[in-house]
Specification:
Number of strands: 11
Pathway: Lipid metabolism; Amino-acid biosynthesis; L-histidine biosynthesis; L-histidine from 5-phospho-alpha-D-ribose 1-diphosphate: step 7/9
Strand order of the largest sheet: 1-7-6-5-4-2-3
Strand content: 5-15%
CATH architecture of the largest domain: 3-Layer(aba) Sandwich
EC number: 2.6.1.9
Low-confidence stretches: none
Helix content: 25-40%
Shape: globular
Cofactor: pyridoxal 5'-phosphate
Mean pLDDT: 96
Oligomer: single chain
Distance between the termini: 58 Å
Number of domains: 2
Order of helices and strands: HHHHEHEHEHEHEEEHHHEEHEEH
CATH superfamily of the largest domain: Type I PLP-dependent aspartate aminotransferase-like (Major domain)
Bound molecules: 4'-deoxy-4'-aminopyridoxal-5'-phosphate
CATH class of the largest domain: Alpha Beta
Number of helices: 13
Structural class: alpha/beta
CATH topology of the largest domain: Aspartate Aminotransferase, domain 2
Keywords: Amino-acid biosynthesis, Aminotransferase, Histidine biosynthesis, Pyridoxal phosphate, Transferase
Family: Belongs to the class-II pyridoxal-phosphate-dependent aminotransferase family. Histidinol-phosphate aminotransferase subfamily.
Length: about 350
């Protein structure tokens, strides 16, 4: 049985979190002389002389409406990259614990594990880019605290079989982190609705992709109240700045505009796949549930360099195990995609 107390990092168990006088004070005051802010104002003429809400209540309430998840089950990070780091710092003892990663997958899990001195156990995806459940079961030991599953997966683009993730959730006594950065482009349902079913589930999402707000650095973790409370204790107090909170709140009103972009991206994805398949140097294009495609080619480096010469940057993934010869190409605007195809027409 999963029990959060069994996986908490030792020094977090009795952690006294940083607390400001304003956290303790509830309600509106007329004079704030507690936080050594500049009382005169800010050169920007907004309330930027004041620290932002550490628990980002307004943004969470709006996300709660959109996602159908109570605000107390939502953690906000400075990008989901921060949420990944906070998971390591909350649940993994440096030098002792380990995490299971399933490459090829998003690179930050390993970087974050390395920074936090957490051992990485790699269990490669299968040739079909699905989970090797037997391999994962063998790799799990008493110090395995986290398993990261990216679905839709970066860089392969496909979704991971839902039943396999459920099997992990039901059998693993640590946290299963399902990174849904690209979920808005997927035919698969989000795992968010399963939070009440699985106490060991953490779902990551972000405003950096479909929401078009990569510059604001706002990522979300959805999990049980207990897990979110721990993450809030461990995070830096003011991790989402006031400008990002205000702008995120404003942007989160624009659901229809975002849905329009998602639809257009999917149409463009289909078009791009059809056009790319006509090139001789394209060997295979993997089915994608994301806003990018993994394109296997006969000469990844040559194509990459040629595109760079023509001012087009794609991602060369050809040195990544199981992605040999592959380029990862983000779906652009219709015009950008035409430019890409026209440029490739002259590649020899
Ligand atoms: N998860 C995945 C799978 C990603 O591809 C990315 C960004 N490339 C992130 C998380 C991080 O997103 P952010 O920190 O911008 O929220």
């Amino acid at each position: 049985m999963f029990n959060i107390n069994n996986i908490l990092r030792e020094n977090i168990k009795n952690l006294k979190p940083y607390s400001s006088a304003r956290d303790e004070f509830k309600g509106e005051a007329s004079v704030y002389l507690d936080a050594n802010e500049n009382a005169f104002g800010s050169p920007l003429n907004k309330d930027y002389n004041r620290y932002p809400d550490p628990l980002q209540y307004a943004v969470k309430m709006r996300l709660s409406e959109i996602k159908g998840v109570p605000a107390r089950n939502i953690f906000l990070g400075n990008g989901s990259d921060e949420a990944i780091d906070i998971l390591f710092r909350s649940f993994c003892n440096p030098g002792a614990d380990n995490v299971i990663l399933v490459p090829p997958t998003y690179g930050m899990y390993e970087v974050s594990a390395n920074i936090n001195d957490i051992a990485v156990k790699r269990v490669n995806l299968t040739e079909e880019y699905q989970l090797n459940l037997e391999g994962i079961a063998e790799a799990i030991d008493k110090n395995t605290k986290l398993i990261f599953i990216c679905s839709p997966n970066n860089p392969t683009g496909n979704s991971i079989n839902r039943e396999d993730i459920e099997t992990l959730l039901a059998n693993f006594n640590g946290l299963v982190v399902v990174d849904e950065a690209y979920i808005n482009y997927s035919r698969q349902k989000s795992f968010i609705q399963e939070l009440t079913e699985y106490a060991n589930l953490v779902v990551l999402q972000t405003l950096s992709k479909a929401w078009g707000l990569a510059a604001l650095r706002v990522g979300m973790a959805f999990a049980s109240e207990e897990i979110i409370a721990v993450m809030n204790k461990v995070k830096p107090p003011y991790n989402i700045n006031e400008a990002s909170q205000q702008l995120a709140l404003e942007a989160l009103q624009n659901v229809e505009q975002v849905n329009g972009w998602i639809k257009e991206t999917l149409t463009e994805r289909d078009n791009l796949v059809l056009k790319l398949k006509e090139f001789e140097f394209v060997v295979d294009i993997y089915p994608s549930d994301a806003n990018f495609i993994l394109v296997k080619t006969t000469d990844a480096r040559g194509i990459y360099n040629y595109l760079v010469e023509h001012g087009i940057i794609v991602r060369d993934r050809s040195k990544v195990e199981l992605c040999e010869g592959a380029l990862r190409i983000t779906i652009g605007t219709p015009q950008e995609n035409i430019t890409l195809i026209n440029t490739l027409t002259n590649f020899k």
